[in-house]
Each structure stands twice: as structure tokens, then as C-alpha cells.
Amino acid sequence: MIEKQKAVLNVSLIPLAIIILLILGVGSFLLKDEIKLPNFNKEPTITRLTDFPTTVTTTKQLEKRREVITTNEQLNEFLNSIDESGLLKVQENINFDNDVVIAATSDTNEFKGVKVKIRKVYEEKAKKRLLVLVEETVPGDICTPQPGMNVAVDIITLSKTDWDIRFDKVTKTLECN
């Protein structure tokens, strides 16, 4: 008789354990942004900045640039070298103690329609290297060109790392209808 009572108690604890797990799961889903749990994943975090990618009208001939920016002064210098009027700004406050800025621009384009976007960041763990994939979209040959000198710009933040950062470019042609 005593053995039957022990079995009954163990069986009644299983639904209780399932209910507790469901409550914890739903609670963590609902409060996922309010409770910061420790992050043991040391992969770099990437944040796209507001209003980027963009194109900037210019009168200067600029070369394409790929830069890793580590200070606020370097960021201001980079932005002013593209747009001397000062209209090109970063809205976010960047903590350069924790993050670096990855910036990519195109050459000066004589016609509108060229876009630059930092598409992806790949990790090469064996070589301790990050590969930043920059996608440049150009209008196709059958597109009607719209005149206007401009530079395409994209900027992201990346969590600070001691790994080597390299760039790779992919050109994509966008055909017009």
C-alpha cells in the first residue's frame, strides 16, 4: 500500500512541472527585451544605423572607401569628407569603448541609381578574421540614366573585436522595366 502512494505522488508532480516550465517559457517570451540575461555568445553584434544606407549629392570626385572607424573624431572626419555641408549625420550615440563603426562608400557616380549596402559580416574563426560583404547595386544598361553626381554610403556598428576586419565587394545589376 505504501508503494502505491509513492507512485501516485510522482505522477501528480509531472503535470505540475510541465505547468511551471510553460509559465517560465511564456514569461521569458513576453519579457525578452526587459530582462537582460547574461550573454555567453561572444559573436559580434551588428547594428544598422538609422537613415543608412543613403546617397549623398556631391560635386567632388571621391574614391570608394571601406573604413573601420574607432573614434568619434574619425567618424566626423569621414562624414565631412563625403558631405562638406554637414547634412550627413549619425543620429545614434555610439559608444566607441564597446563598438567600432564600419563604413563603405562608392565612387562618385555621375548618374543616380547606384546603391551601397553592407550586406553581411562573416566570421573566419580559424584565421580570427571578419569579412564584411559590401553589395553595390548598379542600374542595368537598358535603364534611362538620371543625371546627378552622388556617392552611396552605408554605415553600421559592430561590437569591438581584436580580430582583423577585411572587406569584399559584390556587384549586383538591377535591370529596369
Helix content: 10-25%
Sheet having the most strands? 6 strands, antiparallel
Structural class: alpha+beta
The count of domains is 2
User: What overall geometry do the principal axes of the alpha carbons give?
Assistant: elongated
**Tally the helices: what do you get?**
2
State the order of secondary-structure elements, H for helix, E for strand.
HEEEHEEEEEE
Which segments are poorly predicted (pLDDT under 50) over 5 or more consecutive residues? none
Number of strands: 9
Report Rg: 25 Å
Query: Termini, distance in Å?
Result: 83 Å
Mean pLDDT: 86
Q: What is the strand content? A: 35-45%
Describe the structure.
The protein is α+β, with helices and mostly antiparallel strands and 177 residues long. It is 23% helix and 38% strand. The strands form 2 sheets. Strands 1, 2, 3, 4, 5 and 8 form a 6-stranded antiparallel beta sheet that branches. A 3-stranded mixed beta sheet has the order 6-7-9, with no helix packed on it. It starts with a helix and ends with a strand.
How is the secondary structure organized here?
Layout: H1 2-30, E1 46-48, E2 54-57, E3 65-69, H2 72-82, E4 99-105, E5 109-111, E6 115-124, E7 129-139, E8 147-159, E9 164-174
Parallel strand pairs: 7-9
Antiparallel strand pairs: 1-8, 2-8, 3-4, 4-8, 5-8, 6-7
